[in-house]
Amino acid sequence: MPKPEMEFHRTQARWVQPEDAAPGVWEQQLSHDPETGDTSLLQRYDPGTRTTAGVITHEFWEEVLLLEGDLRDITLNRTFTAGMYACRPPGMRHGPYLSTLGCLMFVNTRYPTGA
């Protein structure tokens, strides 16, 4: 079943800590397609959160809009702030991260179709 059709509503999704995430990283799933794995979610980092997994890559497309706060890519030595956007194709290297103030992000993931 694809992502469900939903008109504007107040989400009832709970904030949860994703499996294998660094302490202080939380997600609120907004929609999910169980067949493809495509997901839309809010992700937040508590102030002072530092990811420890090293450089990240994954097999899906990831789009991220930073809504509030700051997010520092330690490898790039760059700090990103509210209003900044990233579009990452599968295999793109990014992170690890540090958020001094904490942050809130909208994240959309999409798996490639066909091979």
Automatic annotation (TrEMBL):
The lineage of its organism: Bacteria, Bacillati, Actinomycetota, Actinomycetes, Mycobacteriales. Gene3D superfamilies: Jelly Rolls. InterPro entries: ChrR-like_cupin_dom, RmlC-like_jellyroll, RmlC_Cupin_sf. Residues 9-110 form the ChrR-like cupin domain. This is ChrR Cupin-like domain-containing protein.
